[in-house]
Amino acid sequence: MATIKQVADAAHVSFKTVSRVINDDPNVSATTRARVIDAINTLGYRPNLIARNMRTRRSHLLGFVADEIATTPFAVNLIKGAQDAAWKRGFMLMIVSCDNDAARAEGAVETLLERKVEGVVYATMRHEVIVPPPHIDEAPSVFANCRAEDGSVASVTPNEERGGFEATETLIHRGRQRIALINLEPGATAAQARLAGYLRALTTHGLPIDERRIRNTDDGQPDDGFRRMDELLDLTPPPDAVFCANDRIAMGAYDAIKARGLRIPQDISVIGFDNQEVIAAYLRPALTTMALPHYEMGYWAVEHLLRALDNGAISPEQVMLPCPLVRRASI
Amino acid sequence: MATIKQVADAAHVSFKTVSRVINDDPNVSATTRARVIDAINTLGYRPNLIARNMRTRRSHLLGFVADEIATTPFAVNLIKGAQDAAWKRGFMLMIVSCDNDAARAEGAVETLLERKVEGVVYATMRHEVIVPPPHIDEAPSVFANCRAEDGSVASVTPNEERGGFEATETLIHRGRQRIALINLEPGATAAQARLAGYLRALTTHGLPIDERRIRNTDDGQPDDGFRRMDELLDLTPPPDAVFCANDRIAMGAYDAIKARGLRIPQDISVIGFDNQEVIAAYLRPALTTMALPHYEMGYWAVEHLLRALDNGAISPEQVMLPCPLVRRASI
DNA sequence: CTGTTAGCGCGTTCAT
DNA sequence: ATGAACGCGCTAACAG
Are both A29 and A88 inside the same structural domain? Predict the structure, then answer.
């Protein structure tokens, strides 16, 4: 690999002049510049960013620590958003998944710090309240899709309550009156907020709250959705719409509805949550659902980090991003 | 951030001694070592890997370039496999997605090279034959889930033919005689091989090949699967099993089968391909399918890279990994 | 067992 | 407009 010095020799200038050319310093005559560029090309020279960063003490590197990266396809959008924001400013991401292993999380943060990342985003695959991994405070950091209990670290999370509200309101605007909710497993951070939004929508629109129409799942999976939907259909009168707190639940609900010979959306409207594409877009009829803003969260997290680097300080903002409605054919 | 020199001062030793302690050099007396470790801890010292790497000329960094990262959930397993293999050896991954943009791919490779990655894995989300991105040959590289037409670069891909063979054979062992195939869109690299495997299985087991039972899709999506399955069901006699060349096609086929009041697997067996979890595991009944070895490919790619670094040379092996059968309830 | 000197490839400071 | 000397934080090579 050619060095700056070899280029300098080839171009018969000092290596400092080469440095100037690389960094677009105007104080180089056109002819010298041309000669240097020529030498760069013939030698296939490539600046050594490691060396440069060591000197400038800026790595243009951001760490991205994910609690895990396997189960859901959400990671991908989070990363994509983060990367787009970083790439635009000439930053690169160093991504580590720690598979829900605290030791690995700590190790990841330490390694990233040793590699002189200028900031760290810590992302979880499920919306959660977390205790920050050790040492993460040694670099500017942002939590994506999760937040610290004490709000000490900047965070960006989905506005679940408003999502729940709008999902329910969409059903109400559709003219539905007996709207059921099949909620997530009670432990999930999002469960409470989505329920709260559901209740607020009913109240706001003067609809009665019927406890029998509200069900929890054990694990938020399709089998659960099937069973709960089946129970709801036994009610008299049965619901004319159902808000499934995630798309997998909706997937199971579809089967239960179809098994009774009912039609979606003519007999019953279904709305989901998460916009898990492979499910939502492919169900028959395609599922109307609330999208989780993963891409936007990743993007915001990195932008906030970059802003902090510009300003020399990071503000511990707690931002919530909307969950937009994705209209398909199920309501 | 404390430096090695500050630690040395605090411990009243030369900075070289600190260096020895950090690198587990045995030539340090126990008492000195203890004193140094003490200083390290009180100062919160963290070695600067940038500086170390500059000196040792080893970055312990691997580049991971993905053609895109958004549409399918496959990226995640590829990355996970790569990361696990890297982490085990103290390497980190620098991941870039270039969104099918050639310019971005070239830029990504250049940036990675400037950052002194010791090797690059280039991965595609769909099994493909590609022309290598420019400059990638400047570092040891491996293609994952794709290969160069001329075999000049090491590659690891799924054994699609054998997967197609085993999928079909599984159906045959189940006692099925009239096995249909709904294949991918004809342009897909995997389409030919999966078809070849299907044909070989029929031939091997002395079953006739009936052209009418072989259908292509336009885009490999559920709607397509629905239509093709519907056509197949019009045949006399209808197939008693169907090999869907991906799980999304199978998803559509399920709907077509159920719409006719037929039962899976009693009336007709369905086997898929890809093991796209959110679909395969959640369909009712759960879909038996062939898994794509994404994790394994990512793992192999990095291991091969690491082997090459150990050996000082990379061999352009063209490895194919098996697609294991995932038994569920649909056959 | 410990310390000294040199230098990795660059950018910064100052001189010319 | 160009160059020389210096140092970023660390390890290698050698000395003691």
Answer: no
